[in-house]
Amino acid sequence: MVPAALTPLGLGARTLVMGVLNATDDSFSGDGLGGDARRLAARGLEMVLAGAALNLSPETLGGTSVRLSLIVDDPDAVAERAIAAGATEVLPIADQPYGLRQGRVADPYGHHWLIGRPLADAARWSGTVRAR
Question: What is the domain class of 64-132 according to CATH?
Answer without folding.
Answer: alpha beta
